[in-house]
């Protein structure tokens, strides 16, 4: 380059270091390069170690790893256990499980929307290996798979004969149940982790020992991540009662129905349908809340059908059995290769009832027959029903426990449309009237009052009393005979007062007895146990309230079972036996079940004189045997002596009365006590008494009491 004359020329002696202001020592340029070399050497050494380890694993275990990769996947599936049977006392089957076929769909195919991770994995398997990194190709495959699953749902719903909306509702219920279950299981795992994790107390966090422990201790364990529960990788029944045509299609072309399987399962069946339905109860698929409760308590995530009411619920542990476990082997494409039973399902144990199925059926027919007559005569706003119970007075075994109206427990097992109507029926067929109905007992309560009067010396058996038809006012506290005919019972004593059901006799003497003794005797006979309402002495503030209680009214209510136990105690000489509904083995005879020397689960009623019981029993015999007795015309049956008491309990308002008859047979040597009660059934002597007579004839026909000596009479007309 040529310099022009006018340009400034720098001094030849100028050194750039003279004009710098930083007088620090210069750093040799070789140091950064030195550090880089060491860093590269470190990474190279690490890489060599990794490659060496990989080579060592390949040489030593390569074939094993490849074998593991080719091994089929394994899934454990539960196998339903058959529930035990329910039998009557003679071995007749009342409930059992049987094998049925159902359509099951894999959980991932039922989810809405489909699980994104699962959907992506399935889509990647459809895309060629070269395009698996192409987002567009994966997205297209996901869309196609989603459309195929939607068409599959439509095809299955149509083939099974259900609406698509109903199909989606069932799928949503399954998804909700499984998601709740998975949430409970994972929450429980995290809770256990937090309980087992040791935390350092706050006051020790800054000590030298804490610091040294923290430096050299292994890293703390992280909370467990969510796991996939078995139900999220299993097939779920979505349609029962599968048509045979769809079964053939699926089994012939399984590839055309991905995620679908025909499975066998156990279903509960009640061969006698409505027979003893309220007593036996029913089973149903557990709700999400029930599954969640079982999972949270025991960690078990597979719950079969469970008993909801009755014997099915009471003996659930015995009936349920234990589910088995099946191991399924599948390849990477999900195709089933083999199955292996890990644990066989254990069938539940049988339960033998004390009920006689034939007697139970006869009792239910009697109630149904009368109920149909009430349907024709009662108004639509008057609910009505009834109950009939028979019990061995010595053992407490129940031979019949009929309730009307009834339902068919098969409706719960099959999802019958009639179930919804039964649940909304104002007649409440699901309500067990035999064991739970609470009504004023009316005059069937009078024998207990008579016992109290005798024990406290208020009256003797032969104490004379004149009944004018009313106590003191012709418009109040009257006898039925005065209301109907304007006359009284005349000269009577305790036996005839029971036989003719004289209210005035009990009005007069209950006031002399007082509330405390009467309520105490009612408690001794079990009226304060298991339902009903027994007023306290303090609630009986006047003689009028006490007198109403003396004829089974006031605020007193009782269940049929409480009344039955009272009459059984009178019949057996003063033992309050506990009712029994199950027995250890099948009965071989219809003769008396147990002798008085082998009574079980009984309580001796304290302070009860045998002479007192004998006097009351004479009165109950006269109710049926004396021509003046209230049950002479309707209950008396030649060939067998019957003792008992009619009862007509006021229901209030304009509604018909409740009809009762309670008693025992034979009267001279009691073996069985029974109770008939008709809700708003009218007259106890006519309506309930007629059913009682037919019941005794059924006991004779079945040879519990001997052969029938007279032909069955026609069913007499009732009142109301």
Summarize the topology:
Layout: H1 30-70, E1 73-79, E2 86-87, E3 93-106, H2 107-110, H3 116-126, H4 135-160, H5 164-196, H6 208-216, E4 235-239, H7 244-252, E5 260-269, H8 277-280, E6 282-284, H9 288-298, E7 306-309, H10 310-314, H11 316-320, E8 324-330, E9 336-343, E10 351-353, H12 357-377, E11 385-392, E12 398-404, H13 410-414, H14 418-423, H15 433-436, H16 446-455, E13 465-467, E14 470-473, E15 476-478, H17 480-485, E16 490-492, H18 494-500, H19 503-513, H20 515-524, H21 543-550, H22 560-572, E17 575-577, E18 582-583, E19 602-604, H23 610-625, E20 643-649, E21 658-665, E22 672-679, H24 684-701
Parallel strand pairs: 2-10
Antiparallel strand pairs: 1-8, 2-3, 3-4, 3-5, 6-7, 8-9, 10-18, 11-12, 11-22, 13-16, 14-15, 17-19, 20-21, 21-22
Average residue pLDDT? 82
CATH topology (fold) name of the largest domain: Beta-lactamase
The major pleated sheet works out as:
6 strands, mixed
CATH superfamily descriptor of the largest domain: DD-peptidase/beta-lactamase superfamily
Q: In what range is the share of β-strand residues?
A: 15-25%
Number of domains: 2
What is the name of the CATH architecture of the largest domain? 3-Layer(aba) Sandwich
How helix-rich are the residues, as a percent range? 40-55%
Rounded to the nearest angstrom, the radius of gyration is: 42 Å
Low-confidence stretches: 593-599, 708-720
Euclidean distance between termini CA atoms: 137 Å
Shape: elongated
CATH class of the largest domain: Alpha Beta
What structural class do you assign from the helix and strand content? alpha+beta
**SS elements, strand count:** 22
**What count of helical segments does DSSP give?**
24
């Amino acid at each position: 380059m040529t310099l022009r004359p006018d340009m400034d020329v720098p001094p030849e002696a100028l050194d750039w270091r003279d004009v710098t202001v930083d007088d620090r020592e210069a750093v040799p340029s070789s140091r950064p390069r030195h550090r880089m070399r060491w860093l590269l050497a470190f990474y190279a050494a690490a890489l060599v170690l990794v490659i060496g380890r990989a080579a060592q694993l390949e040489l030593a275990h390569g074939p094993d790893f490849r074998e593991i990769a080719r091994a089929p996947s394994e899934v454990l599936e539960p196998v339903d256990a058959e529930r035990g049977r329910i039998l009557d006392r003679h071995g007749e089957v009342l409930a059992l499980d049987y094998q049925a076929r159902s359509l099951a769909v894999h959980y991932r195919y039922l989810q809405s929307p489909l699980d994104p991770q699962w959907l992506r994995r399935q889509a990647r398997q459809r895309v060629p290996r070269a395009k698996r990194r192409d987002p567009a190709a994966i997205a297209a495959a996901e869309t196609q798979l989603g459309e195929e699953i939607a068409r599959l749902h439509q095809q299955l719903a149509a083939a099974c004969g259900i609406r698509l909306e109903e199909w989606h509702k069932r799928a949503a219920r399954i998804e909700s149940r499984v998601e709740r279950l998975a949430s409970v299981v994972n929450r429980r795992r995290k809770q256990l982790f937090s309980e087992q994790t040791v935390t350092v107390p706050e006051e020790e966090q800054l000590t030298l020992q804490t610091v040294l422990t923290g430096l050299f201790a292994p890293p703390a364990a992280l909370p467990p991540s969510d796991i996939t529960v078995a139900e999220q990788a299993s097939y779920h029944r979505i349609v029962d009662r599968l048509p045979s045509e769809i079964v053939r299609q699926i089994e012939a072309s399984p590839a055309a129905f991905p995620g679908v399987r025909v499975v066998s399962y156990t279903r509960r069946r009640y061969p006698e349908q409505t027979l003893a339905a309220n007593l036996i109860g029913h089973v149903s698929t557990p709700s999400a809340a029930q599954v969640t409760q079982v999972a949270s308590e025991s960690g078990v995530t597979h719950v079969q059908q469970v008993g909801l009411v009755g014997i099915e619920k009471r003996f659930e542990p015995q009936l349920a059995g234990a589910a088995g476990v099946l191991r399924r082997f599948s390849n990477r494409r999900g195709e089933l290769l083999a199955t292996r039973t890990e644990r066989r399902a254990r069938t539940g144990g049988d339960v033998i009832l004390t009920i006689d199925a034939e007697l139970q059926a006869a009792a239910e027919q009697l109630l149904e027959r009368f109920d149909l007559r009430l349907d024709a005569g009662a108004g639509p706003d008057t609910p009505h029903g009834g109950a009939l119970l028979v019990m061995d007075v010595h053992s407490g075994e129940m031979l019949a426990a009929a309730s009307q109206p009834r339902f068919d427990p098969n409706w719960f097992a099959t999802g019958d449309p009639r179930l919804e109507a039964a649940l909304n029926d104002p007649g409440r067929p699901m309500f067990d009237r035999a064991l739970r109905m609470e009504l004023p007992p009316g005059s069937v309560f009078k024998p207990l009052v008579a016992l109290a009067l005798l024990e406290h010396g208020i009256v003797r058996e032969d104490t004379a009393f004149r009944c004018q038809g009313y106590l003191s006012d012709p418009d109040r506290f009257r006898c039925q005979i005065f209301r109907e005919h304007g006359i009284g019972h005349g000269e009577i004593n305790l036996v005839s007062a029971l036989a003719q059901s004289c209210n005035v006799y009990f009005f007069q003497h209950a006031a002399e007895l007082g509330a405390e003794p009467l309520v105490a005797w009612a408690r001794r006979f079990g009226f304060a146990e298991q339902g009903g309402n027994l007023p306290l002495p303090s609630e009986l503030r006047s003689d009028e309230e006490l007198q109403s209680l003396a004829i089974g009214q006031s605020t007193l209510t009782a269940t049929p079972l409480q009344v039955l136990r009272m009459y059984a105690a009178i019949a057996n000489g003063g033992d309050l036996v506990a009712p029994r509904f199950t027995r250890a083995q099948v009965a071989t005879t219809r003769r008396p079940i147990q002798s008085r020397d082998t009574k079980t689960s009984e309580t001796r009623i304290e302070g009860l004189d045998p002479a007192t019981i004998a006097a009351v029993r004479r009165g109950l015999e006269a109710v049926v045997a004396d021509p003046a007795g209230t049950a002479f015309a309707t209950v008396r049956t030649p060939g067998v002596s019957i003792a008992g008491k009619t009862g007509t309990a006021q229901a209030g308002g304009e509604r018909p009365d409740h009809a009762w008859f309670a008693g025992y047979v034979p009267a001279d040597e009691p073996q069985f006590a029974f109770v008939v009660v008709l809700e708003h059934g009218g007259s106890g002597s006519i309506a309930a008494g007629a059913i009682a007579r037919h019941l005794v004839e059924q006991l004779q026909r079945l040879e519990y009491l001997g052969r029938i000596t007279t032909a069955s009479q026609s069913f007499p007309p009732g009142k109301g």
